[in-house]
Amino acid sequence: YRIVYVGANTPVDDLLELARQHRPLALMISASTQMSVHALLEKREALRASVSPIFYGGAAFNAQPHVADELGGHYLGSNVIDALPRFESLIRASESQLDAADAGRKVANP
Questions:
Q1: Which H helix or E strand runs over 27?
Q2: pLDDT in tens, 51-65
Q3: Residue ranges of the chain with per-residue pLDDT less than 70
């Protein structure tokens, strides 16, 4: 995978605009504090509308994995050994859903 690090404390709106422009396979957001999670929750609707699937990790999500669901994303786990296979599985499922939707559109609009 090609990874682009956009920096710590990147505003959510800026991150989502980059995603709209570049259409990455996924976004990954790490939060180490509850204050960071609170800031993400304030942007919940924008995060849920992301053009790319969003994956969450970090100490704050390790303590409250369910918050990733509230944000419309996926919690990857508390370590990279667990996170990578989960990421790959979820990406494959996401790609399959997109392929099925594209096939439906092609059939509906020959």
A1: strand 27-30
A2: 999 999 999 999 999
A3: 97-110
Give every CB contact of residue 25 below 8 A, 6+ residues apart in sequence: 1, 52, 91
Length of the chain: 110
Residue position matching structure tokens 């180490």 = 32
Measured CA to CA, the distance from residue 63 to residue 41 in angstroms comes to 15
DSSP 48-108: HT-SS-EEEESHHHHH-THHHHHTTSEE--SSHHHHHHHHHHHHHHHHHHHHHHHHHHHHH
For the full predicted model, state whether its pTM sits above 0.85.
Answer: no
